[in-house]
Amino acid sequence: MHISPVLWQFLVKWLNASALFPREASTIAPYTDALYFFLLAITIVGVTLVGGLVIGFSVRYRKERNPVATHIEGSTLLEATWTIIPLALFLIVFVWGALLYFRIYTPPVNSMNVYIIGKQWMWKAEHPGGQHEINALHVPIGRPVQLTMISQDVFHSFSIPDYRVKREVIPGRYSTVWFEATDPGTYHLFCTQYCGTLHAGMIGQITALSPEDYEKWTRESVSGMSLAQNGERLFNSLGCNACHNGQAAARGPNLAGVYGSRVQQADGSQVLVNDAYLRDTILNPSQHVVAGYAPIMPTYQGQVSEDGLIDLVEYIKNLQTNYRNEQTLTTSQSNQAATAAPGTVKP
Amino acid sequence: MSATSSTIVNLPDQSSATLPKRNYLNNEHGLMSWLLTGDHKRIAILYLISITFFFFIGGFFAGMIRLELLTPQPDLMASDTYNKMFSLHGIIMIFLFLVPSVPATLGNFLIPIMLGARDLAFPKINLLSWYLYLIGGTLTLAALVLGGVDTGWTFTTPLSTHYLNTHVVTAATAIFIAGFSSIFTGLNFIVTVHRMRAPGMTWFRMPLFVWSHYAASVLMVLGTPVLAITLVLVALERTIGIGVFDPSKGGDPLLFQHLFWFYSHPAVYIMILPGFGVISEVISTFSRKRVFGYTAVAFSSVAIAVFGFFVWAHHMFIMGVSNYSALVFSLLTMLVAVPSAIKIFNWSFTLQKGSITFETPMLYAFGFIGLFTIGGMTGVFLGGLGMDIHLTETYFIVAHFHFVMVGGMLMAFLAGVHFWWPKMTGRMYPESLSKLAAVTTFIGFNLTFLPQFILGYLGMPRRYHAYPPEFQVLNVLSTAGATVLGVGYLMPLIYLGWSLKYGAIAGNNPWQATGLEWQIQSPPLTENFIEIPIVDHEAYDYEWLANKTVNEVTTVG
Question: Most buried among A346, B275, B466, B535, by the most CB within 10 A?
């Protein structure tokens, strides 16, 4: 048979460029693949067994060889066998899958945090240090990275196949996912939840860097202020500091060091202060009145963007003392006094 | 001569068979006699024509999707067009083809006859159900002609309520109305099974076809109203902004997911259970044996119907449901897989010590067993929590549900159509051509959907209009397979149409099957039975059939 060399080369190139199995590029990937191969094995055994039975019986008991059927009612023993063995296998898969699930969705305590905002049709990554990226994410290898994600509009889903992680990005609530990259390189980032016209264009690139390269990248890509600094400016311009200033007569609870603590609510319940709680208190303050305070805080729904909320959350998260807060207040008060002063001295 | 050796093994001489002078097809004439009929058999034919029409429309969209995915670039159509293609493919195939496929056609035709009744309990409601289906179908076509809809068949909020300006409300209304046609069919079946069985037809003498339809009917009646409510809420949210699903108004978008999957997961069983019924009949008939473990197969249908209602959140494992509720739903998902495994093994062992022949329906049934086993096992992948994270929303899930719905249900539907074609029309289909079609379908199907499992594990997301170039080889294979599959589906359309006029005369019982439907003339009389039969034997009793035939011969001779 003769095949044109041009066509042959084209075919070879084409097949070489194709993929059959994804790379294992995170610490999770080998665990996922182990379960996958187990499942693949029981599938192959199961299909071979059923196929073997059907084909074997078809050959052995075809009409030419077995012209008269023998009637069998059933067999309790056989039926119990094929109830119990599949059940046992499925339960193994259940336990194994559950362990894997908890591993994938429970971030280690020492993980670094990056915020992700999904919107039609792009991914924004915001690093606490003030690095902003669009449809890209730079992460160091050998260090757990937690993503705190939210959508500004519809459901999206953040998927990195080579890391075997994926999580829905939902409007109105934070969802998290974590991974630890093992190999430097670039990897696909896909939105896997259908989100409208350019769903297939909502893709990006994960760049895993060695710790040194990551350090270098971090230094060189700072644009403007850190998230917490942005947050502080927003905190003051929205007038949050008028009440949340830590002074004795303050009308709102003290926020310094509140992150990670448990707070007593007016309805008697105790709530853990985390990112989701902070975000929700800004948008729905009447739902989360802290014990001992009047429900006077207005809602900021529609006034702060998701980026702004992330800045505020990051600011409150890192707020250890009210010192700067008081300074700001004093300055603004003395400024007011200063501007008011000439008016009062009317001749 | 022992009783077993008297089993009829030779098909009767069909050359002497003639079409009965009077039957349900020629009882009345004219278009109005069809459009205003109360006869369950004529309504089944009306349904068969309508769902075939919609199947080929849905199939056209599938073809366009595969054609676009031949190359990684989005070069055949615009993104919005592509999104409309897969949305309409899903909506039409699920709500207008798969849900009514077996129940509304074969079920409608056969359930009264199998029970020994003259019609369903409510013939007029049965006709109404077809008209509702037709209105739903027309509205879907209207949405299509007016410019399409691009929500996907899942109508995910807030995308469907706030971010699209296509004909969402029209499509939702269409599904809402078509849903009632399905409720009415289910209601009719439940009442008929309870109230209209012939004397002696006890529950455990019913064919398994009836059992599986009974289970599916319960799901239709209990599940479909939830879908209807959900779609009303989507329409209200879209038109007047009531805010049930809108987080900025205090609503919860996850609530939509819960409500939608509360119907749409049981809907999977609404689609597949009637197919199970067909397979039980076909395998028993062509191995000339009672179904192995009749009771286990009957009860596994009921178990699937019950458990099927409590697994819906396995569609939401990555959506931020509580980890502990995810655990419960994963466990229940594993449990619901067991009855399906039981059925597969029972069918396989029905063949043991049978006397097997390989007519077309049997080939389709074998295809069903193979493909459904793969479809079911890959479902276990997705039910495993940690595995689901990587696999969900990719081509793996697309391949999985096509194996179950197309490899399983469509194979069963075609098995059933070929099996009962002689009964419905009085004529045989061409045997060798139809065997070729069955084999073509099987090969084309595997070529289309096996590569998609690999694509899914690679991470290719579903509903993508363009994809990274390294996925192309597998996509080309899949598209090539879809072409073969398309040929496999067009062939029956052509030769079944041909057989209406030129097919050999079938006679009453060409397969020597035991069901009551095979003991009457083909095509049946409008009233099915001249006198209501008295049932004194189990289902699939081939000895009874043999004795009956012997006695008949004696009487005539």
Answer: B275
CATH number at residue A242: 1.10.760.10
**Which residue of B300, B377, B478 to mutate against A (max A Cβ within 10 Å)?**
B377
Q: Judge whether residue B14 has pLDDT over 60.
A: no
Q: What is the interface pTM, i.e. ipTM, of the complex? A: 0.91
- Cis omega (within 30 of 0) for bond into A67: no
Q: Is the pLDDT of residue B78 over 60?
A: yes
Amino acid identity, position A35? L
Domain count of the fold of chain A? 2
Stretch (H or E) spanning A263:
strand A262-264
Question: CA neighbours within 13 Å on the CB side: how many for B36?
Answer: 6
Q: Are residues A279 and A161 in the same domain?
A: no
Give B257-267 pLDDT, tens digit per residue.
Answer: 999 999 999 99
pLDDT band at B243 (very low <50, low <70, confident <90, very high): confident
Q: Among candidates B382, B433, B444, B456, which has minimal Cα distance to B411? A: B444
Choose among A54, A82, A200: nearest Cβ to B342. Answer: A82
Nearest to A43 among B80, B338, B378 (CB): B378
Domain annotation covers residue A12:
no
User: Chain A residue closest to B538 (CA)?
Assistant: A73
Identify all chain A residues contacting B248, using CB atoms and an 8 Å cutoff.
Answer: 172, 301-302
A220: closest CA of chain B, how far (Å): 30
Residues of B in contact with A18 (CB under 8 A): 470-474
Token pair in block for residue A95: 């336990």
Mean pLDDT of B29-37: 91
The predicted structure's pLDDT at residue A240? 87
State whether A176 and A125 are in the same domain: yes
Bridge partners (DSSP) of residue A118 are A123, A151
CB within 8 Å: A53 and B353 = no
Global confidence as pTM: 0.91
Last residue within a domain, chosen from A190, A223, A256: A223
The domains of chain B are located at 36-556
Give the residue numbers spanning the domain of A238. 227-334
CATH class of this structure's domain B36-556: mainly alpha
Shortest CA distance from B73: residue in chain A: A200
Helix B411-425 and helix B108-115, axial crossing angle in degrees, nearest 10: 60
Residues A104 and A231 in one domain: no
The verdict on residue A343 lying in a domain is no
CATH number of A185's domain: 2.60.40.420
pLDDT of residue B10: 45
